[in-house]
Amino acid sequence: MKKFLSMLLALAMVLSLAACSGDSNPPASGGGDQSQPSGDGGGEDAGDNYHIGIITGSVSQSEDDRRGAEAFQAKYGEDRIKLAIYPDNFTEEMETSIQTILNMSDDPDMKAIIVNQAVPGTTEAFRQIKERRPDIICIAGEPHEDLPEIGSAADLACTSDFVSRGYLVIRAAHELGCDTFVHVSFPRHLAYESMSRRAAIMEATCEEFGMTFVQETAPDPITDVGVPGAQAFILEKVPEWVEKYGQNTAFFATNGAHTEPLLKRLMECGGYFVEADMPSPLKGYPGALGLDLTEEAGDFEKILAKVEEAIVAGGGAGRFGTWAYSYGYTLSAGLAQHAMNVIDGKSELLDMDDLSAAFQVYTPNAEWNGSGYVNATTGVKSDNVFLVYQDTYIMGDPGWYLGNAQVEVPEKYFTVS
Questions:
Q1: Measured between alpha carbons, how far is 238 from 264 in angstroms, rounded to an integer?
Q2: Are the C-beta atoms of 275 and 303 separated by less than 8 Å?
Q3: Cβ-based neighbours of 300, under 8 Å, separated by 6 or more
Q4: CB 56 within 8 A of CB 117
Q5: Distance between CA 234 and CA 263 in Å, rounded?
Q6: Residue burial 374-388, b: 16+ Cβ < 10 Å; e: rest
Q7: 3-state class (DSSP) for residue 166
């Protein structure tokens, strides 16, 4: 009997210890709240055991976007940062674009996916990802889809401030002495709210400053003419446009493929160029000026200095501007940096100051500004769609910043549509 009682006591002790052990080690995964993105910045450092995915266009279509992603990968390693490319003809291959984004979520260690530029299909891809992997932070850079639409699926969407820049680019052209502004685009781009709304703001601002606003149409590079055909058109037309509108005309193109031939001809024929659609000293300038920037690769201060030197030598001082640091490059690397800071519990996902701090890592000398997107029709301000811009730098001897980041844009332009 004593032996039997001893065995019962020992068994009771074992069961008690097992129960205590179970209480002190809860399951690694839990319910809905635990699977949501860590957007409040309150978590602990997640360590190195997670992946971040960045999807961009190819070098031929979006070189700066791609280089920024590659730089972030080089900084943190290929084992942590995963890259992919969506098709060049993304409008015709939307399903391929969607699948490329979705493939990133198959990685069980994936914690954030950044798409820059967020081409058509990104919204659908993010929706599908959220259905099966709500823990993944989905970030859209420079969305091609309507902002309310992408904002409904993405945790964060970030685009260049087409509202403020619609005003500031014209204001800059006016300050440089221009009396005419030529906006070069095509129907596909003008179907995007951001681009059509910016054009409307530009036109309204021209009226305020007593300038003439002109719309010119150029071939879409993703149609049958391709990039070569679109660029040949610009090379042929710019001399005619400068002669027609005059030397004190500023030009703006909504497509990167048009920018290089536009700059090349403006250097030869006269005219002004405040900044590109997605500004960068690499956007069109190296090809237009015949520059080899291999030695300066990744160093934007040296890149800007070399571009500026060539502009001045070619007689373009005071006529050409840019953002000192590439927007596309910064968006790829900066959004990924912001995602990493959020995952590590160092930042809040929807804090503009935290986002700016992440950008500042890649643009140490440039000032940024921005605001939440306001729907022109409803007047509702979004809390997860940010509009951002960098100060404009005019190249000369010496060059100068215009101070655009400090200019207060008149309230009336935020509802122009």
A1: 9
A2: no
A3: 281, 324, 325, 326, 329, 363
A4: yes
A5: 10
A6: bbbeeeeebebbbbb
A7: helix
**Residues 42-72: pLDDT tens digits?**
344 556 789 999 999 998 888 889 999 999 9
φ and ψ of 343, to 5 deg: -60, -40
User: What is the 3-class SS of the chain, one letter each residue?
Assistant: CHHHHHHHHHHHHHHHHHHHHHHCCCCCCCCCHHHCCCCCCCCCCCCCCCEEEEEECCHHHHHHHHHHHHHHHHHHCCCCEEEEECCCCCCCCHHHHHHHHHHHCCCCCEEEEEEECCCCCHHHHHHHHHHHCCCCEEEEECCCCCHHHHHHHCCEEEEECHHHHHHHHHHHHHHCCCCEEEEEECHHHHCCHHHHHHHHHHHHHHHHCCCEEEEEECCCCCCCCHHHHHHHHHHHHHHHHHHHHCCCEEEEECCHHHHHHHHHHHHHHCCEECCCCCCCCCCCHHHHHCCCCCCCCCCHHHHHHHHHHHHHHCCCCCCEEECCCCHHHHHHHHHHHHHHHHHCCCCCCCCHHHHHHHHHCCCCCCCEEEEEEECCCCCCEEEEEEEEEECCEEECCCCEECCHHHCCCCHHHHHCC
**Whether the Cβ atoms of residue 100 and residue 122 lie closer than 8 Å to each other:** no
What residue type is 151 in one-letter code?
G
Specify the pLDDT at position 370: 85
Contacts of 411 (CB under 8 A, 6+ apart): none
pLDDT digits 0-9 by tens, 293-335: 999 988 899 999 999 999 999 999 999 999 999 889 999 999 9
Report which residue type is found at 40. D
Q: pTM for the complete prediction? A: 0.77
